[in-house]
Amino acid sequence: SNDDDDDDDDDDRLARRKRMQRETSRQLARRRGMERFTRRSSWWVESPSFEKRYLIALGEKVSLVMIPSHETLNPNGGQDEGG
User: Fold this and answer.
1) Is the pTM of this model over 0.90?
2) Cα→Cα distances 16→5, 9, 24, 39, Å
């Protein structure tokens, strides 16, 4: 009957709306996570903690940054693991 078809259409619309809301929530959560990361990262150019005085060159996809003498990219503090 037509009433059953209308109910199915309503269910489909509700299911689509729920999927869209869930996807929107996931995207917002990813964005918030990335924003938290960029705020904390001193290496991220858009981060408030990024020190622009260390920026040497900024390209479309790559940046060249001078490493301050008091920082290191090596978690071992620049020491070799072997010795």
Assistant:
1) no
2) 16, 10, 12, 34
